[in-house]
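Standup notes
- DV: blocked on the single-chain target, sequence here:
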Amino acid sequence: MNTINFEFGVYSLGERFPDAIGKVLPAQERIENIIQMAKWADEAGLDVFGVGEHHRLDFVTSSYAMILAAIARETKNIKLASSLSVISTADPVRVYEDFATLDLLSCGRTEIILGRGLYLESFSLFGVSLDDYDKLFEEKLGLFMKLQEKEVVNWHGEFRTPLRDAQIAPRPVQSKIPIWIGVGGTPGSAIRAGKLGLNMALGLLAGAPERVQHLTNLYWQAASVAGHDLSQLKVSVTGHSYLADSGEQAIREFAPCYNQYMAYGLKDRGMPFYPISAEQMMPQRAANEILAVGSAEELAEKILYQHELFGHLRFMGQFDMGNQSMARVEKAIDLLANKVAPIVHRSLNK
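- DV (later): unblocked, structure below
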C-alpha cells in the first residue's frame, strides 16, 4: 500500500491591526512573535511554515524573505515558504536570488507560493500598472520558472529589460525551488497552475467546500491534458484557523479575533462587515464548512472531508489573526501537530 504523506503547517500574514481598545502591537514584537510561532511549529514536528508579503503600515512583512531567513537560523526541520509572493510587482530575478539564498541558509527547506495577492498597494509602490494585471503575472511567472533551469539566462519580455548571458546566483541547495501558485476563486489561475505542472495553494475562507471543488477539478484536468505526472503535483488548502480543546471553546476564543480582523480589513477597503456572534459561528464547526475552527477531532474530520473533494495533501492554518494571544496560538499549534495530524494520517493510511 502506498503511504499518503499529508502535510500540516501554519502561516502568518504579519498584520498588526488595532485590537478591541485600539492598541497596535509594535512592529518589532510582531516580528518576534512570528519567529516564535515558527519555532513552536518546528519543535512540534509540523511540515511547513509560511510568511506572506504585504507593503503597508499595518503589516510587518514587506521584507518577508528576511523574516524567513531569520526563521531559517532558528529552526531545524520545517519547510519555509512564502504565503504568498506578489510576483506581479516584483523583479523575478531578485525574488529568485532571495529564495535561493534562503534555501542555502535553511539547508534546502525552501518553497515559494507565487500569486497576485489580495491587496493592490504594491502596484503603485513599485511603479507597475493595474492595467497590466494579468500580463504582468504571466510574464514574471514565466521568467521565474526559467531562472530555475540554468545558471546563465537569456530572456526578453515586455515589462523589464532583457537578460543577456545573465548570471543567476546563488544557486539553491535543491535542484529547483518547489513552486506553488496561489489561487483564490479564479478558474483561470487554477487552469494555469495545472497546465504549467506547478503545485496549487488554494485559499479558502468560508462557505461550503463543494462550491470551490470545480477549481481543483479544473486544476487536475489541465495538468492531465498537459501530460504532467499527477502523482508529482500537490494541492494545499489554506485559510483562517483556530483550535482549542473543545469546539465550543475554539469558537468562543476565535470569534472576537475574527470579527476584529475582518472589520478592520474590510473597512479599509470600503466594504461593510457585520459581526458574527459565537452562537452564529458554531455551525461552522461542521465537516462540510470551510472555516477551519473547532476541536482537533472536528478539524481532522473537516480535512478528511475536503481531501475526498480536492485530493489535497497539505493543510495550512492562519492561527494568529486578530491579535490572538500567543499562548493560545502555541496551544493551537500543539493540537494541530499532536492531535489533528495523527488522526488524519491514521485515516488516510489504513
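- Follow-up: The mean pLDDT is 95.
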